Prior knowledge:
This protein is of the alpha/beta class. The protein has helices at residues 10-14, 50-63, 80-92, 106-115, 127-141, 155-172, 188-200, 246-260, 266-284, and strands spanning 21-23, 34-40, 72-76, 96-101, 118-122, 146-148, 179-183, 205-211, 240-244, 289-295. It has 2 domains: 13-43 and 162-309, Rossmann fold; 50-148, Rossmann fold (3-Layer(aba) Sandwich). Helix 3 links the parallel strand 3 and strand 4 (96-101). It is globular. The relative contact order is 0.16. The model is unreliable at 1-9 (pLDDT under 50).
Amino acid sequence: MECKDFQFGSGLLDRIGNTPLIRLDTIVDELDGVTLLAKAEWNNPGGSVKDRAAAAMIRAAREQGKLIPGKTILDATSGNTGIALAMLGAAQGFPVQLVMPSNVSPERRRILKAYGAQIEWTDPDLSSDGAILRAREMAANDPGRFCYIDQYSNEANWRAHYNATGPEIWRQTDGRVTHFVAGIGTSGTFTGTTRRLKELNPAIKCISMQPGSPFHGLEGLKYLATTIAPAIYDPRLADRNIEVETEAAYSMARQLARESGLLVGISAAAAVTASLQVAREESSAGRTAVIVTVLPDSADKYLSDRFWEEA
């Protein structure tokens, strides 16, 4: 069988984005006038929303001549961006060096090992900030070896969502979206999607979500008051911010699994928790609303966590 025209590697990139928008009817079934929708980002090939940004950042680095043969992709990560970089690095022939807090889940460790990524572990008490500072140090000490992706400062991060996630939500709701809710980690998803949605309809309310305290279990999310704020984050974009406690997110994760048949990650459950707060407010005020949120990943990287066993 001849396959002269087959382009190796193109299929993986083609699968990133255009994720389905699913209805969370069981969560809002008692609230009149409200529709709650969520982007199922685990449908990306690397299993998370971070595939979008990782692909865009690698593409930009290659186009700018920063990522060339012989260079190693370097970044700090709490997990999902690292997995996406490791997947894409393997597909495109680039070694990947990641810096991560040592308390990441065993599932993430196994996935990264499977992709062949090299890991330097940092103090978990320093959270993602410790990993960021170490990655910066490594990049400065050996610039000839590393292409430092720097997802927290990389403009290609939010542009991935401006160019794709925002337009997808607009198209999938036929322009009826009234509220957008997303968590703040690097802030790429919220920043890029919000900028595009506000251009399409300035009346759309865009709500950011953060953990409720500096010490939290919402992996990948930042409590901005006490951490290094991402350079790409613009606090002027959010119409409001909602804080979600870790236990509330755990409870929502169990509820979604047992009542909706959806196994979602912890930050996804936190996003639904914040969206439900908005839904209740809109319904109690007698307003109709189409609320859209992002489910960054599924529960497959968190199933070793003990909260699943609680009643």
